[in-house]
């Protein structure tokens, strides 16, 4: 694909952001779940852009996906987060691992934003150590019965379906005894919203499954083969989240630049001080580094390179750090204003922190990078 084709997607998404997202970013940050925006993104075929058009995608490559989440995150990291999960963690997952029925009946609705699906892996006991999850699915009289407690689930409070990871064998078997189910929400699901520091308005919730019934037809992948489904999902998600990091850093940089150009002190504009110029130059250089990492990881994924795995971890680790650093500097440039709720830099700073925790913490990234180095990858 030539760059001009990416420009076409960028133009469409920027217009969309200006029309529907930018003015709503504050409300979303205050907790309003933007279901209507997600639906509109679906109508544009940009909610799951990498899906083939017959399923409601745009048949786009992973770089296009990254560019879309980046533009969304520049205005509203909350919207970008919901989109990133619905697209790379859910739509791509069902497309690659789901049954014929899921692809025909549910996938087009996911891509259209008609239904929201949450990715329910983490539990109060286990986030980084996801192979230790305790939610159980037991086969009783021909049907599966799911019981368990999930934690920190994005979209969890509003989801219509849950992609639930459950234990289907002994705890000691760890990742070899986990199965993933696509479960329709019903009365057996109990959700309670959780107040979080950033990416607010994304419906983060505690989700309990109380004797939820599922059939074999609700299994994504194979019985006891859930770990592969989870790992594949997180590999794609990790790349997309690097795009969210770039967008957050860019959003904060733009706010700081605007502020520095307007703010007067000591009879000069703040931007005239060399320290401010150096700060902005540092931030800009970091953002370009983050872009390079995210776009390169996307490229490696699309060409099916064996180097993708380590690169996706490197990109997630470094782009998250860059986003936290750039947003912190943006707040600093804005001084007291930067610390107020009026400031968008303040929102970006809070939003950036989740990038070092969600979908694998920085420490987990380093753990995997070192394992892959040992394996010679
Ligand atoms: C806003 C938000 C949204 C989220 N959305 C989802 C979602 O949609 N679906 C979902 O399933 N989960 C979701 N999560 C959960 C997220 O993936 C976990 O919080 C994350 O994986 C960390 O797990 P934990 O919170 O249990 O921390 P722990 O695993 O308990 O980690 C605590 C600390 O220990 C460190 N640590 C862990 N292992 C090691 C080690 N081996 N060596 C050294 N240090 C280590 C960690 O890096 C961390 O600093 C979300 C979390 C948040 C906050």
Provide keyphrases for this structure.
single chain; 377 residues; Butyryl-Coa Dehydrogenase, subunit A, domain 1; Butyryl-CoA Dehydrogenase, subunit A, domain 2; Butyryl-CoA Dehydrogenase, subunit A, domain 3; four-stranded mixed β-sheet; four-stranded antiparallel β-sheet; 11 helices; binds flavin-adenine dinucleotide
Structure description:
This protein has 377 residues and is α+β, with helices and mostly antiparallel strands. It has three domains: 3-116, Butyryl-Coa Dehydrogenase, subunit A, domain 1 (Orthogonal Bundle); 118-224, Butyryl-CoA Dehydrogenase, subunit A, domain 2 (Beta Barrel); 228-374, Butyryl-CoA Dehydrogenase, subunit A, domain 3. The protein has eleven helices and ten strands. It has a four-stranded mixed sheet with strand order 1-4-5-8. The protein has a four-stranded antiparallel sheet with strand order 2-3-7-6, with no helix packed on it. Strands 9-10 form a two-stranded antiparallel sheet. Helix 7 (226-262) packs antiparallel against helix 8 (274-302). The longest helix is centred in the middle third of the chain and has 37 residues, at 226-262. The relative contact order is 0.11. It binds flavin-adenine dinucleotide.
CATH architectural grouping of the largest domain: Up-down Bundle
Largest sheet: 4 strands, mixed
The CATH homologous superfamily of the largest domain is termed Butyryl-CoA Dehydrogenase, subunit A, domain 3
**CATH fold annotation of the largest domain:** Butyryl-CoA Dehydrogenase, subunit A, domain 3
N- to C-terminal separation? 28 Å
CATH class of the largest domain: Mainly Alpha
Count helical runs.
11
Instruction: Quickly give the structural class.
Output: alpha+beta
Bound compounds: flavin-adenine dinucleotide
pLDDT < 50 runs, ≥5 residues: none
Look at the structure and give the mean pLDDT: 97
Taken in chain order, the helices and strands follow as HHHHHHEEEEEEEEHEEHHHH
Gross morphology: globular
Strand order of the largest sheet: 1-4-5-8
Total count of domains = 3
Strand percentage lies at: 5-15%
Quantity of strands, as a count: 10
Give the % helix: 40-55%
